[in-house]
Specification:
The complex is a heterodimer of chains A (76) and B (134).
Chain A: H1 15-18, H2 29-32, H3 45-48, H4 52-67
Chain B: E1 2-10, H1 16-32, E2 36-52, E3 55-67, H2 69-81, E4 85-92, H3 94-116, H4 124-133
Antiparallel strand pairs in B: 1-3, 1-4, 2-3
The chains are: A mainly alpha (76), B alpha+beta (134).
Amino acid sequence: MAQQKQYYRRKKVCKFCVERIDAINYKDVKLLSQFIPERAKIMPRRISGVCSPHQRRLNEAIKMARNIALLPFTSE
Amino acid sequence: MRNYEIMFIVHPNTTDEDLDKINTQIEAVITAGGGQITKIEKMGKRRLAYEIDRNREGIYVLFAISANGEIVKECERRLRVLDAVIKYITVCTDEEDRRFNKIKSYRQKRAARRGSGSRSAAAELPEQLADDAI
Protein backbone atom coordinates (compact mmCIF):
# COMPACT_ATOMS: atom_id res chain seq x y z
CA MET A 1 0.00 0.00 0.00
CA ALA A 2 2.32 2.60 -1.28
CA GLN A 3 -0.35 5.09 -2.07
CA GLN A 4 -3.17 5.50 0.31
CA LYS A 5 -5.67 8.16 -0.42
CA GLN A 6 -5.67 10.73 2.27
CA TYR A 7 -8.99 12.19 1.38
CA TYR A 8 -12.07 10.37 0.51
CA ARG A 9 -13.28 11.26 -2.93
CA ARG A 10 -16.88 10.66 -3.86
CA LYS A 11 -17.23 8.60 -6.97
CA LYS A 12 -18.61 10.60 -9.86
CA VAL A 13 -21.74 9.34 -11.52
CA CYS A 14 -23.35 10.11 -14.82
CA LYS A 15 -26.26 12.44 -14.20
CA PHE A 16 -28.18 11.10 -17.18
CA CYS A 17 -27.83 7.48 -16.12
CA VAL A 18 -28.74 8.08 -12.51
CA GLU A 19 -31.67 10.39 -13.08
CA ARG A 20 -32.75 8.45 -16.16
CA ILE A 21 -32.89 11.40 -18.47
CA ASP A 22 -33.59 9.81 -21.83
CA ALA A 23 -33.91 12.80 -24.07
CA ILE A 24 -30.99 15.16 -24.45
CA ASN A 25 -32.58 17.82 -26.54
CA TYR A 26 -30.99 20.96 -27.90
CA LYS A 27 -33.99 23.03 -26.77
CA ASP A 28 -33.58 22.06 -23.13
CA VAL A 29 -31.44 25.01 -22.14
CA LYS A 30 -31.86 24.42 -18.44
CA LEU A 31 -30.38 20.95 -18.66
CA LEU A 32 -27.60 21.82 -21.08
CA SER A 33 -26.48 24.92 -19.23
CA GLN A 34 -25.49 22.74 -16.29
CA PHE A 35 -22.67 21.46 -18.48
CA ILE A 36 -21.24 24.76 -19.60
CA PRO A 37 -19.09 26.60 -17.08
CA GLU A 38 -18.48 30.36 -17.08
CA ARG A 39 -16.33 30.45 -20.17
CA ALA A 40 -19.10 28.60 -21.97
CA LYS A 41 -16.90 25.69 -22.93
CA ILE A 42 -18.32 22.20 -22.82
CA MET A 43 -17.51 20.61 -19.50
CA PRO A 44 -15.12 17.64 -19.90
CA ARG A 45 -16.17 14.20 -18.85
CA ARG A 46 -13.45 13.92 -16.28
CA ILE A 47 -15.04 16.76 -14.35
CA SER A 48 -18.74 16.19 -14.85
CA GLY A 49 -18.55 12.40 -14.68
CA VAL A 50 -20.95 11.90 -17.56
CA CYS A 51 -20.60 8.53 -19.28
CA SER A 52 -19.29 8.52 -22.81
CA PRO A 53 -22.50 7.66 -24.72
CA HIS A 54 -24.29 10.46 -22.92
CA GLN A 55 -21.41 12.88 -23.32
CA ARG A 56 -21.48 12.31 -27.05
CA ARG A 57 -25.13 13.20 -27.26
CA LEU A 58 -24.68 16.08 -24.88
CA ASN A 59 -21.97 17.46 -27.13
CA GLU A 60 -24.19 17.34 -30.17
CA ALA A 61 -27.06 18.97 -28.33
CA ILE A 62 -24.91 21.79 -26.99
CA LYS A 63 -23.49 22.47 -30.43
CA MET A 64 -26.96 22.60 -31.94
CA ALA A 65 -28.14 24.93 -29.21
CA ARG A 66 -25.18 27.20 -29.88
CA ASN A 67 -26.08 27.39 -33.51
CA ILE A 68 -29.51 28.78 -32.76
CA ALA A 69 -28.25 31.18 -30.06
CA LEU A 70 -29.77 29.35 -27.12
CA LEU A 71 -26.31 28.87 -25.66
CA PRO A 72 -23.22 31.02 -26.09
CA PHE A 73 -20.08 29.99 -27.95
CA THR A 74 -18.03 32.10 -25.56
CA SER A 75 -18.75 34.53 -22.81
CA GLU A 76 -16.54 37.44 -22.05
CA MET B 1 -41.34 11.33 -45.21
CA ARG B 2 -39.23 12.25 -42.26
CA ASN B 3 -39.84 14.28 -39.17
CA TYR B 4 -38.10 17.59 -38.90
CA GLU B 5 -38.00 20.50 -36.57
CA ILE B 6 -37.44 23.91 -38.03
CA MET B 7 -36.59 26.59 -35.54
CA PHE B 8 -36.01 30.17 -36.55
CA ILE B 9 -35.42 33.51 -34.93
CA VAL B 10 -37.30 36.58 -36.09
CA HIS B 11 -36.18 40.15 -35.59
CA PRO B 12 -37.37 41.43 -32.20
CA ASN B 13 -39.17 44.46 -33.67
CA THR B 14 -41.42 42.35 -35.85
CA THR B 15 -45.10 42.90 -35.16
CA ASP B 16 -47.46 40.04 -34.44
CA GLU B 17 -49.15 40.38 -37.81
CA ASP B 18 -45.86 40.14 -39.66
CA LEU B 19 -44.93 37.13 -37.60
CA ASP B 20 -48.20 35.45 -38.47
CA LYS B 21 -47.62 36.31 -42.10
CA ILE B 22 -44.24 34.58 -42.04
CA ASN B 23 -45.75 31.58 -40.32
CA THR B 24 -48.56 31.23 -42.85
CA GLN B 25 -46.02 31.55 -45.65
CA ILE B 26 -43.94 28.69 -44.30
CA GLU B 27 -47.09 26.70 -43.61
CA ALA B 28 -48.17 27.16 -47.22
CA VAL B 29 -44.82 25.91 -48.49
CA ILE B 30 -45.05 22.79 -46.38
CA THR B 31 -48.68 21.92 -47.15
CA ALA B 32 -48.25 22.69 -50.85
CA GLY B 33 -45.44 20.18 -51.08
CA GLY B 34 -47.53 17.51 -49.36
CA GLY B 35 -45.97 17.76 -45.93
CA GLN B 36 -47.76 17.77 -42.64
CA ILE B 37 -47.43 20.16 -39.74
CA THR B 38 -47.56 18.56 -36.32
CA LYS B 39 -46.91 21.62 -34.25
CA ILE B 40 -46.30 25.33 -34.49
CA GLU B 41 -44.96 26.88 -31.36
CA LYS B 42 -44.24 30.51 -30.80
CA MET B 43 -41.68 30.47 -28.06
CA GLY B 44 -41.86 34.23 -27.67
CA LYS B 45 -39.15 36.78 -27.20
CA ARG B 46 -35.91 35.50 -25.72
CA ARG B 47 -32.49 36.88 -25.07
CA LEU B 48 -29.97 35.58 -27.54
CA ALA B 49 -26.86 33.96 -26.16
CA TYR B 50 -24.76 36.09 -28.50
CA GLU B 51 -25.34 38.99 -30.83
CA ILE B 52 -26.71 38.30 -34.26
CA ASP B 53 -26.70 41.29 -36.61
CA ARG B 54 -26.52 43.56 -33.58
CA ASN B 55 -29.64 42.04 -32.07
CA ARG B 56 -29.57 40.97 -28.48
CA GLU B 57 -33.09 39.58 -28.53
CA GLY B 58 -35.15 37.55 -30.89
CA ILE B 59 -38.54 35.94 -31.30
CA TYR B 60 -38.26 32.17 -31.51
CA VAL B 61 -40.65 30.09 -33.58
CA LEU B 62 -40.65 26.31 -33.76
CA PHE B 63 -42.22 24.18 -36.47
CA ALA B 64 -42.50 20.43 -36.10
CA ILE B 65 -43.25 18.90 -39.47
CA SER B 66 -43.13 15.69 -41.39
CA ALA B 67 -41.91 16.29 -44.89
CA ASN B 68 -39.35 15.27 -47.47
CA GLY B 69 -36.04 16.87 -48.30
CA GLU B 70 -37.34 19.10 -51.06
CA ILE B 71 -39.88 20.78 -48.84
CA VAL B 72 -37.26 21.42 -46.22
CA LYS B 73 -34.95 22.82 -48.86
CA GLU B 74 -37.65 25.18 -50.04
CA CYS B 75 -38.45 26.25 -46.46
CA GLU B 76 -34.82 27.03 -45.82
CA ARG B 77 -34.61 29.04 -49.01
CA ARG B 78 -37.66 31.06 -47.96
CA LEU B 79 -36.22 31.66 -44.52
CA ARG B 80 -32.97 32.87 -46.03
CA VAL B 81 -34.81 35.29 -48.28
CA LEU B 82 -36.98 36.79 -45.57
CA ASP B 83 -35.30 39.81 -44.03
CA ALA B 84 -37.04 39.49 -40.68
CA VAL B 85 -35.61 36.03 -40.06
CA ILE B 86 -32.16 36.34 -38.56
CA LYS B 87 -31.28 32.69 -38.00
CA TYR B 88 -32.77 29.26 -38.56
CA ILE B 89 -31.93 25.65 -37.89
CA THR B 90 -33.46 22.43 -39.21
CA VAL B 91 -33.09 19.26 -37.23
CA CYS B 92 -34.15 15.78 -38.25
CA THR B 93 -35.76 14.23 -35.18
CA ASP B 94 -36.28 10.68 -36.44
CA GLU B 95 -33.23 9.14 -34.93
CA GLU B 96 -33.72 10.81 -31.59
CA ASP B 97 -37.36 9.65 -31.46
CA ARG B 98 -36.36 6.12 -32.30
CA ARG B 99 -33.79 6.06 -29.57
CA PHE B 100 -36.24 7.55 -27.09
CA ASN B 101 -38.92 4.96 -27.89
CA LYS B 102 -36.41 2.16 -27.68
CA ILE B 103 -35.31 3.17 -24.23
CA LYS B 104 -38.88 3.68 -23.14
CA SER B 105 -40.02 0.25 -24.31
CA TYR B 106 -36.99 -1.31 -22.69
CA ARG B 107 -37.80 0.37 -19.41
CA GLN B 108 -41.40 -0.73 -19.61
CA LYS B 109 -40.46 -4.29 -20.30
CA ARG B 110 -38.07 -4.29 -17.41
CA ALA B 111 -40.58 -2.70 -15.10
CA ALA B 112 -43.16 -5.30 -16.09
CA ARG B 113 -40.73 -8.11 -15.42
CA ARG B 114 -39.84 -6.68 -12.07
CA GLY B 115 -43.47 -6.04 -11.24
CA SER B 116 -44.32 -9.72 -11.74
CA GLY B 117 -41.49 -10.77 -9.46
CA SER B 118 -41.23 -10.10 -5.77
CA ARG B 119 -39.29 -6.87 -6.25
CA SER B 120 -41.00 -3.77 -7.45
CA ALA B 121 -39.58 -1.37 -9.99
CA ALA B 122 -39.52 1.40 -7.44
CA ALA B 123 -37.05 -0.48 -5.30
CA GLU B 124 -34.47 -0.29 -8.05
CA LEU B 125 -33.57 3.36 -7.91
CA PRO B 126 -32.78 3.78 -4.21
CA GLU B 127 -30.60 0.71 -4.45
CA GLN B 128 -28.51 2.28 -7.15
CA LEU B 129 -28.24 5.52 -5.25
CA ALA B 130 -27.10 3.62 -2.20
CA ASP B 131 -24.35 2.05 -4.25
CA ASP B 132 -23.11 5.44 -5.29
CA ALA B 133 -22.96 6.69 -1.75
CA ILE B 134 -20.56 3.97 -0.66
